[in-house]
Amino acid sequence: MAIGAKTGKTGKGTRKRAGAFRDTYFVIMAGGKGERFWPLSTDRIPKPFVSLMGRKTLIELTVDRARKIVPLTHIFVVLVREHLAIAKKCLPGLPRSNFIIQPFDRDTAPCVGLAAMVLHQLNHDAVMVVLPSDHYLPDEAGFTGLIKETVKAARRGEHLVTIGITPGRPETGYGYIKAGKKISLPPEADCYEVARYVEKPNLATARRYVRQGGYYWNAGIFVWRADALLEGLRLHMPALHDGLEKLGKVRSLRQKAGADAVFAGFEKVSIDYGLMEKAKNVLMMPAAFVWEDVGTWTSLLRVLCADESGNVVRGKNLVLDTTGCVIISDKTPVATLGVSGLVIVAGKNGILVCDASKAQEVRQIARIISKRGDR
Amino acid sequence: MAIGAKTGKTGKGTRKRAGAFRDTYFVIMAGGKGERFWPLSTDRIPKPFVSLMGRKTLIELTVDRARKIVPLTHIFVVLVREHLAIAKKCLPGLPRSNFIIQPFDRDTAPCVGLAAMVLHQLNHDAVMVVLPSDHYLPDEAGFTGLIKETVKAARRGEHLVTIGITPGRPETGYGYIKAGKKISLPPEADCYEVARYVEKPNLATARRYVRQGGYYWNAGIFVWRADALLEGLRLHMPALHDGLEKLGKVRSLRQKAGADAVFAGFEKVSIDYGLMEKAKNVLMMPAAFVWEDVGTWTSLLRVLCADESGNVVRGKNLVLDTTGCVIISDKTPVATLGVSGLVIVAGKNGILVCDASKAQEVRQIARIISKRGDR
């Protein structure tokens, strides 16, 4: 039986808002270490709290996106306790109770489950829009429009809705979703069952996907009723569901130290792997808007405006005879001469000089530096 | 007539020292902008005052070399006024009056001429050992031994003595001296007339020089009596000599503002070009010790100990999958990954990332940054 059926509390202060999205809540996942964005991100200040695109931090940009649809009171941020202080600093307007604290990072399944539990207790009709905090989504209107459609679809409670991005190129760095049977749902949005999930493909396979059509990038954006998600967990991740039920019985869920023990027992597993790939009621809604995962320094070459030499430069830097480089230094000026295909990032914790093709391996550096104790 | 014949002052306090080198003085040229060592050297802190090899600045290392032969009171530093403060800070033990101040930098001929004037007024028998402040000379005993020989040869007053380094490789970055007729001088040192000076050769020519023998690197180290140098200037650089005579009549030469006008009139010319290539009484003494000009960041690859991957690393840096790089950062740690043949230097004024083959062009960067006003 779903946790939702057991917890009898009625959401308070959430029903006052009229309109189509009065039961909609955004859940922003602010987890992850962001090791691949060393030196700007560190153990203490992970990626969501770093300004990678412009002045605002990634989490601020994500909250801005959510505010197009719901008020701040309906925006929740899930994070680990160590990052609460920096998160509050980045988001001074967000109510304290909208930070959902995980004792440990256990990947996205426990994170999403915990948020579902909290929201279900708040509002039995809660619909959750789950957003990672490291996406590039420049088409605000397109994003807002589609999210509204997904909420309408999810509100009915039958489906777990996910977004599939129409691929703009044969990208090998993203997972794909193969669309299955087309489904007609009121209000007539374009919807598909999921045939299967595909891990990051090689280039030949990715090219075939793009040529063939019917394959979409897995954006990791999910929309569902909180009770539908909890029911999905009950069916496919019963251990996690049991743990969440225990947590649900704790009166003050968010601050209780007892939660630590329960959380410690959770398996570290993503919601994609743990639930989405197994559930039969997943619905994919294709998106035509531009989306990129901001996963490594080189992803900035795609999402920021490169100059005529193909460089992305931020800060008062001096760039001579330089091509295809990411150069970021907000304080000390960087001067480059005769180099190409490098990532150069200077922050107070360190200076990175790395071949662009090795951007994935920057996490190695972050780990070594973190162990060494200088950040 | 040489200035020496007109100025009638007797050196005071310099005759007390007994021994073979009581009339010997070292003149360290601390000029130059060191633009090629940006970001560690800047307009305000040029190369001689920067620590490029170990903890000591280049000028400290040069003074240490001189002290093997003469006391501090016999060591003079020629510099421009703007650098007096930093020079005094680097060399707290050097008497204030041993800093010879040039109103402007006019290359080495006026610099050396001014020093000769000062020393000749101090001691009519003064022998000057002129040292640039950016040399790598690890063989202390070899250096000291040869300098003593040159002083003995120069003391007789007939010759302007220069040192030629036996080339260890066909270097295209140095000028060469072709040895002429062998001369026998007491105390039987190996001495040659100079057949000719050769500008930096191309690789084929440099290889021929090394194969053929009789060619030496021009180290820019000179030893002569002050009066012999002034006589040389009178013959070959009469305008400079006239100016120095005027300066010689000023009572307090080193502080007089009137010197500015005279100095402003001096042509910017090197002592090699202005005098050495023309004088008939030049004597070259070959040196077998290791010598390198520390002219660019990449010269550090030769003079500092490279690790097994061919990197020269200074500071608490993290070097992964990196070869043939110079990596210097004393404060903020630099992490490199998958790069080769780069010069990476971080200082408080800026961060340089430059292809090793472009090290000569770093001056461009220094000039632009200097104009821009951020140092």
**Largest sheet data of chain A:** 5 strands, mixed, barrel
How are the strands of the largest sheet of chain A arranged?
6-9-7-8-10
Shape of chain A: globular
Domains counted in the coordinates of chain A: how many? Answer: 2
Keywords summarizing the entry:
homodimer, 375 residues, 4-stranded mixed sheet, 17 strands, globular, disordered N terminus
Folded structure, characterized:
2 copies of one chain form a homodimer. Chain A has helices at residues 3-6, 58-67, 84-90, 108-122, 140-155, 203-212, 226-236, 238-249, 259-264, 271-276, 300-303, 362-372, and strands at 24-29, 75-80, 99-102, 127-132, 135-136, 160-165, 176-185, 189-198, 215-225, 282-287, 292-293, 312-314, 318-320, 326-329, 334-337, 342-347, 350-355. Chain A has 12 helices and 17 strands. Chain A folds into 2 domains: 3-294, Spore Coat Polysaccharide Biosynthesis Protein SpsA, Chain A, CATH 3.90.550.10; 298-372, no CATH class. In chain A, helix 4 (108-122) packs across helix 8 (238-249). Chain A starts with a helix and ends with a helix. The first copy, chain A, is of the alpha/beta class and 375 residues long. In chain A, the strands form 4 sheets. A 5-stranded mixed beta barrel of chain A has the order 6-9-7-8-10. At the A-B interface, strand 15, strand 16, strand 17 and helix 12 of A face strand 15, strand 16, strand 17 and helix 12 of B. Strand 17 (350-355) of chain A pairs parallel with strand 15 of chain B.
